[in-house]
Amino acid sequence: MKIKASITGISGYIPEYVLTNFELEKIINTNNEWIINRTGIKERRILKKKNKGSSYMGIKAIKKLIKKKKVKTKKIDLIICSTITPDFIFPSNGSIISNAIKAINSFSYDINAACSGFLYAMTIGAQFIETEKYKLIMIIGVDKMSSIINYRNKSNCILFGDGAGVILLEPNKKKLGIIDSISKSDGKGRKYLYQKKKKYLYQEGKNVFKFAVNK
User: Fold this and answer.
1) Biggest CA-to-CA distance, the chain
2) Which of 32-36, 123-127, 159-163, 188-192 has the lowest mean pLDDT?
3) pLDDT digits (tens, 9 = 90+) for 44-73
4) Sign of torsion over alpha carbons 85, 87, 93, 97
5) Rounded to an integer, what distance in angstroms lies between the CA atom of residue 55 and that of residue 97?
6) Which pairs count as long-range contacts for 111-114, CB under 8 Å and 24+ apart, including other chains?
7) Distance of alpha carbon 163 from alpha carbon 12, whole angstroms
8) What are the residues whose beta carbons fall under 8 Å from the beta carbon of 20, sequence distance 6 or more?
9) How far apart are CA 139 and CA 125, in angstroms?
10) Calculated CA dihedral for residues 78, 82, 83, 89, nearest 10 degrees
């Protein structure tokens, strides 16, 4: 019987600091009603802790899951961290996180695929399970978007916050789990959504939405 990858655990972490729409009113020319009517967003979480990056949130999230599922960290085979805001170019967030939890036997790395990153990472992890290469995999999605957002640009600063989510993938022989996936990508819309080195995120929301709908 074919082995499938099942999500057997889930956890997350969000920072304590809440950036409300009313707070944003003091920073940019906007208001709570304008933001809610266009996005439905009332607040977002921001990591304010000094000298803490996205790996900090990833560590917090994965430790909660380890405790909840009583995972022995030495048995973790693979950690994939999806992020566009890693602490460093290298070492990877995956390596930093695996070191923090003492997952000394894990193969750990990052992938950079922005909004699609978590799905890509989960697809990769599922394949490792299906081929019976690994049995215990952690998939982390984490970003400190506040580090690349221009809080003078109301078109996108209202959209993003900081946080981390993590799932545990394990084998399942009872036809339960991830059935299939179709992953495709093209760069036609790159001029509408990008970030240059050491610069803020740039996004043309209407055009990004058009590309997504037309797919």
Assistant:
1) 60
2) 188-192
3) 999 999 999 999 999 999 999 999 999 999
4) negative
5) 6
6) 111/80, 111/81, 111/82, 112/82, 112/83, 112/84, 113/82, 113/185, 114/84, 114/193
7) 8
8) 32, 42, 43
9) 7
10) 40
Torsion of CA 210, 24, 142, 54, to 10 degrees: 140
* Contact of 210 with 38, CB cutoff 8 Å: no
Q: From the CB of residue 176, how many other CB atoms can be counted at a distance below 10 Å?
A: 12
pLDDT tens digits for range 125-171 = 999 999 999 999 999 999 999 999 988 888 888 899 999 999 999 99
Distance of CA 58 to the CA centre of its chain: 9
Rounded Cα–Cα distance for residues 144 and 142 (Å): 7
Which amino acid, one-letter code, is at 8?
T
Residue with tokens 């960290």: 73
Q: Give me the pLDDT at residue 129, please.
A: 94
In the chain, the N- to C-terminal Cα span, in Å, equals 35
d(CA 49, CA 162): 12
| Secondary structure of residue 87 in the 3-state scheme | coil
Count of CB atoms situated within 10 Å of the CB of 186 = 8
Structural domains of the chain sorted by starting position, each given as residue range(s) with its CATH number in brackets: 4-173 (3.40.47.10)
Full-model pTM: 0.89
Number of Cβ atoms within 10 Å of the Cβ of 168: 22
